[in-house]
Structure formats: structure tokens, C-alpha cells
């Protein structure tokens, strides 16, 4: 049986998705919970290898099992073994060939930012950015990242991928009117390079501070040089929001 | 100088607002921070004495000081001494006679509820309520609590107030469409009895489960008997949202 999971997590206390010796990770926590329930040693494949400190509203994962647990019951069974910072929202069976990462057609990330003088006690999984930002200028620059482009200039170190070409499908900015100064970016692409969202957000924030101009963006993209783009924004504001599949 | 503070806090790790020997409370944390900054021993008066585990988006407090710290600078100065779960959003000087509790004309509380099968890893300061609720029935009952009434049947134990008459100004239900199953109630009154919001919410939830009917509400109110009303809903979903003053 191939079980598909929909997962929400608060990444604050984890060293990212991917299993690492001696460090708490989301993948390790879920694999351990599966083993506790079924006695099997499994690999839980995640659609997105979120970095240390990154959160998820809608991570998708899958694992193969010979257990007799009913597919829909895995969610409650796993939740009983997992910490409250990881919740399985849904479990179901998929065809044996389904692979959460290989079959994803696109992913949506959100980046939350609190642009006001004082931090929030209640909204702490955001980037607190007390400096003034030119939101009009930021809005203008977002379309420059949309389309099929070589995003090498926005790739973090030690990445090993064949191609650095990705297709960004949308890049929007939303102001949350219920909390003063709260904004979030939504970026959808057919795939993301390592730390790509955080490098793009860091660059966009430099434009918002007038340290860089919109006119420079095409040149930075063409350069393929990481050092020309902006800083890497902190992990804490980033959420894997949604993974899309070509559901037939 | 009489300094007025606007305060946000995550009440999870505190035993409520009010100072208590040997227990961490919001009032004690802020008073200690004031003393660290000015060397004075002060009483910080809060507009609402929130219970253990209750949160605040907009608590108002005031304290008298002879310190030379500029009123507007108290917010940043206190934030530097306070834990991240308490943030001062604003500080300013008020007339010497201003008292955050005595002069409040009304207060607004919000109660958050996650009505779905699985809890959330990201929205944890809510009441997770997996059982089915009849939201139409709940909406119908809210107006029955609005108006000037004796709310004695919704007062927690060990309260010592002269009158149990309060005027509820509004009681609304809002569905948050960005998170599946997330709802919140907003209740405004000229004052609240001890645990009044939680007793009202607990009663409303029993109506949502058809354990009680809307027709019983007027009788329960007239009875003035706590045992006829519903359970006290947990503190974790409750927020002091706003304190209003007659600002002249």
C-alpha cells in the first residue's frame, strides 16, 4: 500500500524536513511514528525538502507499507504519536507508482513579513522587519520573476541539480488587514532551487529599501551570479503552502 | 507621569494577568521590567484581568512613574526586557487621572475555535473542537445574549462583584476562510463578569451540539443559576482583543 499524507508543521524546533543523524527533523519524526505503529522501517518521501526552521501548511508525503491499517486511519494514528507541532491533516491510499516529489506539478510557498515597529507576541512565525519598505516599488518588481527563467542567481550554496531553469507561475503580494503591518508573498513554480524563495524575497526587500532597483533584476537573472542578488531572507517567515498534482 | 501601554501577549505560559506570589504572570513580568528600567516599584493596572492561559491582542494598562524616560520610548525599552511572548505595541502619556480599567467604556473579546477533525500545528491557540456543530443554530442564538441583562448564570466561582448586570453590545460569529474549520466569536460588553465569555461560549457550543436549545437561553439567564448554563470553555481560545475609551 502506498499511503499519501497531507502535513502541517511548525518548523521552529526542527532541522528541516530531511532526515539527519542526531538532529530532530520532520521526516525522522514521521518515519519513527510509522515504525512505532507498524513495526516497519520506511522512508517517508516529502514533496518539498524544507530547510531548517521552514514551516508547512500543506506538505505532501508518501510511504509504502504492508500494514493492515486502513489508509484513512493513518492520520489519527500518526497524530497520536507525533508532537503537536506536526499534524497529519489527511491520509489516503495512492497508486503504487505515486511519488510525492517526482509527480508534483507545482508548489506554492508563502513568505510572511511583519512590517511595523514592534514585533508581535502572537504572530511570531514571520520575519519582523521594522524598517520602512516601499510597497509600491515591491509590487512593481514581482512580475519580473514570473516565467521560465534560469534562477541560478537565486540558488543557495552546495546545491547539485542538473538544470537551474524553473518556471515561476505567479508571485503575488497580499496584505492581511486583520493584523497591522502583516503582509505575505505567494510564489508558485513548477519547482524551486535550494533557498530560491528566500533569495528572491531577500532581493525584493532590498528593492523595497531602495538599495537595488527594479531595472537591475533582468541583469541579475541573466548574470546567474548569486552574489549579485540580495541576501537570503530568514527561514522563519517561509511556509510550504500547497503541492499540486495532475490529478486524473 | 502616567504611562499608558497597549499590550499583546501569548498567555500560554502565564498564570493570567494578575500578580500572584511565586507564579509567572503578565502583570508581574511588566512590573519587573519597569523596575529594571527605572528603579521604581510600580503597580501596572490592566484593563482586563485575563485568566490563566488567556491571550491579548490589545490589553491596555497604565502605571505612574517619575522616570525621565520619554513616554513614547517605554515600548521599545520594555520590549528589550520582556520575553517575546509579551510585546508592548505602544506607549504614551495620559492625564494623571487616567485608569485603564476604571475608565474603559467597553471591551471586546474574541474566542477562536477550530472545528475540524485534526488539530492544527500552526494554529494552536484555539479550541480544537472535532465534533460536528450546527453553525446555523449557533448563529440564531447569539442575539439572545445581546442587551443589558443579569449575567449571574454565566459567572465563574469565587467572584465578588456588587452587580452582575452587564450590557452586551454585540456578539458576532466570523468564519476565517483562509484556514479550514477556523471560526471566531467577537463579543463586546461594557464589562464582563469572571469567566463570562468562556461560560457563554461553552453554552453556545452545547446549543451547536443540540444538547440545549435556543429557547432555553432566556430561562437560563433569568434563573441566575450557573449550573443551568453550559460548561466553561477552555482559556486557550480566548483573546482580549480591544479596550475602548471615551477619548475626548
Structure description:
The structure is a homodimer of 248-residue chains. The first copy, chain A, has 2 domains: 2-94, Alpha-Beta Plaits, CATH 3.30.70.580; 106-245, Pseudouridine synthase I, catalytic domain, C-terminal subdomain (Alpha-Beta Plaits), CATH 3.30.70.660. The first copy, chain A, is 20% helix and 29% strand. The first copy, chain A, is built from 5 helices and 10 strands, in the order βαββαβββαβββααβ. Chain A has helices at residues 26-38, 74-81, 135-141, 196-208, 216-223, and strands spanning 2-9, 45-46, 55-64, 86-94, 104-114, 127-128, 147-150, 165-175, 182-189, 238-245. In chain A, strands 1, 2, 3, 4, 5, 6, 7, 8, 9 and 10 form a 10-stranded mixed sheet that branches. The first copy, chain A, is globular and about 60 Å long. The model of chain A has no long low-confidence stretch (mean pLDDT 97). The interface between A and B is medium-sized, with 23 and 23 residues.
Amino acid at each position: 500500500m502506498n499511503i499519501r499524507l497531507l502535513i502541517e508543521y511548525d518548523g521552529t524546533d526542527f532541522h528541516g524536513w530531511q532526515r539527519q543523524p542526531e538532529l530532530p527533523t520532520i521526516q525522522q519524526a514521521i518515519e519513527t511514528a510509522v515504525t512505532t505503529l507498524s513495526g516497519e522501517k520506511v522512508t517517508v518521501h516529502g514533496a518539498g525538502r524544507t530547510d531548517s526552521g521552514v514551516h508547512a501548511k500543506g506538505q505532501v508525503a508518501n510511504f509504502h507499507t504492508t500494514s493492515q491499517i486502513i489508509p484513512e486511519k493513518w492520520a489519527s494514528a500518526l497524530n497520536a504519536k507525533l508532537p503537536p507541532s506536526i499534524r497529519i491533516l489527511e491520509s489516503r491510499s495512492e497508486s503504487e507508482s505515486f511519488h510525492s516529489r517526482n509527480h508534483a506539478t507545482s508548489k506554492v510557498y508563502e513568505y510572511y513579513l511583519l512590517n511595523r515597529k514592534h514585533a508581535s507576541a502572537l504572530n511570531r512565525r514571520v520575519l519582523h522587519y521594522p524598517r520602512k519598505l516601499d510597497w509600491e516599488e515591491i509590487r512593481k518588481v514581482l512580475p519580473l520573476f514570473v516565467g521560465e527563467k534560469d534562477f541560478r542567481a537565486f540558488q543557495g550554496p552546495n546545491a547539485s541539480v542538473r538544470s537551474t531553469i524553473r518556471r515561476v507561475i505567479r508571485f503575488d503580494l497580499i496584505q492581511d488587514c486583520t493584523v497591522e503591518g502583516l503582509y505575505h508573498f505567494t510564489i508558485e513554480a513548477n519547482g524551486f532551487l535550494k533557498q530560491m524563495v528566500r533569495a528572491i524575497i531577500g532581493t525584493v526587500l532590498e528593492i523595497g529599501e531602495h538599495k537595488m532597483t527594479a531595472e537591475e533584476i533582468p541583469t541579475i537573472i541573466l548574470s546567474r551570479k548569486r552574489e549579485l542578488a540580495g541576501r537570503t531572507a530568514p527561514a522563519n517567515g517561509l511556509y510550504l503552502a500547497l503541492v499540486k498534482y495532475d490529478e486524473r
